[in-house]
Amino acid sequence: xxxxxxxxxxxxxxxxxxxxxxxxxxxxxxxxxxxxxxxxxxxxxxxxxxxxxxxxxxxxxxxxxxxxxxxxxxxxxxxxxxxxxxxxxxxxxxxxxxxxxxxxxxxxxxxxxxxxxxxxxxxxxxxxxxxxxxxxxxxxxxxxxxxxxxxxxxxxxxxxxxxxxxxxxxxxxxxxxxxxxxxxxxxxxxxxxxxxxxxxxxxxxxxxxxxxxxxxxxxxxxxxxxxxxxxxxxxxxxxxxxxxxxxxxxxxxxxxxxxxxxxxxxxxxxxxxxxxxxxxxxxxxxxxxxxxxxxxxxxxxxxxxxxxxxxxxxxxxxxxxxxxxxxxxxxxxxxxxxxxxxxxxxxxx
Length: 349
Known about the structure:
Blueprint: E1 19-23, H1 28-44, E2 47-54, H2 59-75, E3 80-84, H3 87-94, H4 98-115, E4 121-123, H5 128-141, H6 145-148, E5 154-156, E6 161-163, H7 171-180, H8 197-210, H9 216-245, E7 247-248, E8 250-251, E9 257-258, E10 269-273, H10 274-278, H11 282-295, H12 302-312, E11 327-329, E12 334-338, E13 342-347
Parallel strand pairs: 1-2, 1-4, 2-3, 4-6
Antiparallel strand pairs: 5-6, 7-10, 8-9, 10-13, 11-12, 12-13
Helix pairs in contact: 1-7, 3-4, 5-8, 5-9, 9-11, 11-12
């Protein structure tokens, strides 16, 4: 019996007995992933299902997407989880962008599906093209290293995983595969709307940049892999050092430290000795400050981190006084005070 044609995919995270659920929009990428896994389900020894989310956008077009997905799963005898969501309602409540609200809703549904035990992993069909677009978006926004790591191939949750097995596969390969097996797919009309940043990058910026480097997409994907591995290495080092560097509360006369006993306030302030910071190299020093702020629920930009470094006397900034008694007010209610020996970070109550 001839084998069904398939696409290559990363199967390193797939084990016999796994119950895999494909996030199926009806677009070319997710349809190809579903068909590939369906063809490989017996050799891999996996259970296969799909999940489709109607976002409450695009009206009749989205309704047609759902019907297409239902028919595809029926034709291949694949169980389908259907979910109705309302991106407009979420946007009204959270003031997120439409793209961010849709993504957050999707991943909430994926997380709940895994937590309920319906699957061991949810697989999304992000491609190498998606990865290169994401890295470029992060560069344009001024991301840190963790941002440049872009789309991770594996996200481990409290229960289950999100897997991206097509991250080394080009979109053109996927469409060629689907044509070869006479499998249609759905096209989201909003993908052509350059009012969205990703579409503008996809349709306008990347084609221009490829004239300078035809292999740009792979180059950007390589950058993401390097950034991801660098970040993992740094995180290991930070996990080792932070307990030694971050001090709770503030020092009191006669020794010891005053720490709030109010319930839920144990992480409302941290301090770092300036002499200890001085012994660190600039890259580690910057990461320690950002990690300290993150423990208080704040995410620092490059400029905000630079101002903290200036407050400590490690960087020049004419707007920051690097002396005892100086203070900085940063976004998210974060405040920094400099004492003779320490930098203290705390949340404005």
